[in-house]
Amino acid sequence: MNLKGRDFLKLLDYSEEEIRYLIDLAKKFKVLKHKGKNHRYLEGKNIAILFEKDSTRTRCSFEVAGHDLGMGVTYLGPTGSQMGKKESIADTARVLCRMYDGIEYRGFEQSIVEELAKYSSVPVWNGLTNEFHPTQMLADIMTAEECLGSMKGKTLAFCGDARNNVANSLMVVCSKLGINFTCCAPKELWPSEELRNVCMEVASKSGSTIKMTEDIMEGTKGVHVLYTDVWLSMGEDASKWEERINLLKPYQINMDVMKNADEKAIFLHCLPSFHDTKTTIGKEISLKFGINEMEVTDEVFNSDKSKVFEEAENRMHTIKAIIYATVNGK
Ligand code: CP
Ligand code: NVA
Fold first, then answer.
1. How much helix, strand and coil, in percent to the nearest 5, is found in the chain?
2. Residue 28 — very low, low, confident or very high, per pLDDT cuts 50/70/90?
3. Measured from the CB, is residue 55 less than 6 Å from ligand 1?
4. Domains 11-132+315-328 and 152-223+225-260+266-304 share a fold
5. Whose CA is nearest to atom 6 of ligand 1?
6. How far does Cα 31 stand from its chain's mean position?
7. Structural domain boundaries in the chain
8. Choices 3.40.50.1370, 3.40.1160.10, 3.30.70.100, 3.20.20.70: CATH for 152-223+225-260+266-304
9. Hey, whose CA ends up nearest to atom 7 of ligand 2?
10. pTM
11. Does ligand 1 lie within 6 Å of residue 309's CB atom?
């Protein structure tokens, strides 16, 4: 397997074997990190990480992974660089690839990260766009495997805003890896028909199924992984909260839903999560709409079924694998 020079823009571009390879590599990096073994394999190289939206996990994962590999890391936030305002994406890519060995981008349309990649001679990594969140997927599957063993033939159910970047990417990764994917959401928030069709075609080859339902109890019966994400994503207008809350309230992951799943089932969430009122937005929503928890109850979030912090840690190990494989070639 040699992924040197490859962009990491969406998982549809990667084969099952390549995804498998990256997850296995991340597991090896995790062992090295936990044993405190030096793995500064990319000493002297540098990466630039561009964020047009906020981030805790993805930014910190790229920074720590880069440093652990011995690399220099430059963070460019939504302000402070010329990107977008005085300099096009294409020109930014052509400048950065003269200095850096890889470029991460988090922002809005998928077409922006695709454009960066088109003009960059070094690998470009998608750290989240409106459409996809591919680096998240490797951490999610890695975590599920650590808890449940091979995921092949098992079922992951996503409940909530199922046409967002995370749900889209989960449907893709499940279809690639032979994992059954069930979407529990109101019809208007199902993934696009176009993406569903692509994933069904991929799933037919890997031997898995893609299912859509509006019935959360039917959709989560006996499943192995329960997954949810925020009801309103970054970049969406706050005026949509009311409509989204009304649509998605029945799709909250609570203990009834958790008990409906397989007895060994785990709960995953990409995070950040609105499971209490300890955040500014959580407080505002509570005052305005009278709800103290949204996509997941505090009880499930803090239960031993919840593996969200293992999942968050795995973001770093998987991102390290992506950087290493695409910059170094092994
Ligand atoms: N899951 C995730 O991407 O988190 P951040 O927004 O904190 O990077
Ligand atoms: N769907 C969320 C994911 C955050 C990691 C968002 O785009 O805001």
1. 50, 15, 35
2. very high
3. yes
4. yes
5. 55
6. 22
7. 11-132+315-328, 152-223+225-260+266-304
8. 3.40.50.1370
9. 233
10. 0.98
11. no
DSSP code string of 286-323? HHHH--S--SB-HHHHTSTTB-HHHHHHHHHHHHHHHH
Q: What kind of architecture, by CATH, is found in domain 11-132+315-328?
A: 3-Layer(aba) Sandwich (3.40)
Place of tokens 């998928």: 110
253 DSSP 8-state letter: B
If you search the block for the tokens 């003269």, which residue do you land on? Answer: 98
What tens digit of pLDDT does each residue of 156-213 get? 999 999 999 999 999 999 999 999 999 999 999 999 999 999 999 999 999 999 999 9
136 lines ligand 1 (CB under 6 A): yes
Read off the pLDDT of residues 68-123 as tens digits, 9 standing for 90 and up: 999 999 999 999 999 988 999 999 999 999 999 999 999 999 999 999 999 999 99
For ligand 2, atom 1, the nearest C-alpha belongs to 233
Residue 330, pLDDT score? 60
Q: Hey, which residues are catalytic here? A: 106, 133, 136, 229, 270, 315
Is the pLDDT at 329 greater than 90? The verdict is: no
How many CB atoms within 10 Å of residue 137?
26
